[in-house]
Amino acid sequence: MNHQKKKGGWSPQSSSAKQATTGCCRGIHGCSSLEAINVVPPTNQNSTSKLELQVAELEKKVLKEKELRAVYKKRMERTQDYLRYCLQVAQDNGFLDLIHNYNNNMDPQSGLLSPNILPPNASPRLPTTPLYQPSDLAVLIDQAHLNGWYIQPEEIEFEEKIGQGSTAHIYKGTWHGLDVAIKCIYPDFFESNENGISFFAQELDTLCRQRHRYVLQLMGACLDPPNYAWVVTEFMSTTLKEWLHGPGNRQRERMIPLPLLKERLDRALEISQAMQYLHGQKPKVIHRDLKPSNIFLDDAMHVRVADFGHARFLSDEEKALTGETGTYVYMAPEVIQCEPYNEKCDVYSFGIILNELLTGNYPYIETDYGPTKIAMEVVEANLRPRLPDDDGQFRELIDLICLSWDGDASVRPSFATITFSLKDLQNRIF
C-alpha cells in the first residue's frame, strides 16, 4: 500500500501560527493594523464551517447521483444491444418463424395449437446440448441416494454459527463424527425467488461432480426445500481473504503481517490448478464468482475453491454465456456489460486475485470508488488495481497479471498456461 507523505515540515497550523507572531509589520510593537486585527474576533465561523460541510456532503451526493445515472444509462444501452442480439439470434435460428406460426395457428376459441404449427421450413435449430433443468429435484435426489450423499436432517449435529450470506447461514457441525460446514439456505429465499430451487440444485450438481484436492469436497446434502435445503461440505477454518488481510472490512492499513511471498505464490498456484481442473471438465465448469472470500484454506493452508452458487456449465458446442453475475471488483468487463463470455471471465478474476496476493492490498483500495463506480471505470477507462513496484523481481508476474486481466478475453491465457508459468517461476525464484 502506497501512502503519500507530506514533504517538509509545513502545515496549515504552523503557517498560521507564524503569521500571528510576525504580522504584516514583521513584529513591530504598537502596529495599529495588527491591533485592529487582534481586537476584532471572527464572526459566524462555526456556522460557516457547518455550512461548508453541508455543501460538501451535498456535492458528494450529487456526484454519486451523476455516476449512478451514467451507469444506468450505459446499462440501458447495453440491454438494448443485448435485446437486439437476442432478436438476431432468434431470427437466425427460426424462432421468430415459430412464434409467427404459433400466433397464426392458434385456435381463438379453444386456445389450442393447430397440429401444423411446425412446418419444415420453420423448425428452430435447438441447442445440441439440452439445458439442465435443476427445478426437477427428483433427479438430483435419486442421484444423491444412488451415490450415497443423501443426508437426513437428524444426522447433522449443529455446533455454532460461523457465518452468513445473502442466501444462507453457515454453521459448523458434525456428521458421522466428521467436522463439517453446513450451508442452510433461508426458507424465504425459495419463497421470494422463483429460481431458488434451480440455484440450489445447480450448486449441488456442480459440487457433486468435483474430485480435486483444491476444490471444496461435498459430503452430502439435505434435499427437502424450503425448510431443509442444506449443503454439507468439509469444514475449513478460514478463507484466503482472512489469511491475507485479517478479519473485518476493506481498509488501507494492514491488520496482520503479510505472509511470505513463497506462501502467497503457493496459494496462487493451487487456485490455478483447481481452476484448470474445473475448466477441463466436460462440460466446462465456469465459476463466475472467483474471489478470496470464496476460496477456503485448510489447517495446512492449502486452498479449496468453493461457493458454486453462480457456477455454470459450458459445453464444447456452446460459445458463451450471457448475463451479469459475480462481484464487481473481480468481475470481467464483458460480464459487467452483459456481453457473451466464456471461461476466460474466471481468468480475469484470477488476475485480480494474483495482484492482490502479490501486493497484499485490496483491489482498488488506492481509490475511493464504490463497486458501481469501479465497474464503470473498468469498462469505460480500462481501470485496474495498482500493480506492485517493478524492481525486476516481479516482472514476469506483472506480465502474467496484465495478460490475465486484459480487456480482450481472447488475449487471456488458459489456466493450464498460468499453472505452467507459476510453477516455472517458483522453481527459478525459490
TrEMBL record:
- Chain sites annotated for binding ATP: 183
Q: Which GO terms describe its molecular function?
A: ATP binding; protein serine/threonine kinase activity
Alphabetized Pfam families for the sequence: Pkinase (PF00069)
Entry keyword set: ATP-binding, Coiled coil, Kinase, Nucleotide-binding, Serine/threonine-protein kinase, Transferase
- Coiled-coil annotation reads 48-75
Q: Where is the Protein kinase domain?
A: 156-430
Carries keyword tRNA processing? no
Q: Which family does it belong to?
A: Belongs to the protein kinase superfamily.
**What is the protein name given in its UniProt record?**
Serine/threonine-protein kinase STY46-like
Q: What organism does this protein naturally occur in?
A: Prunus avium (Cherry)
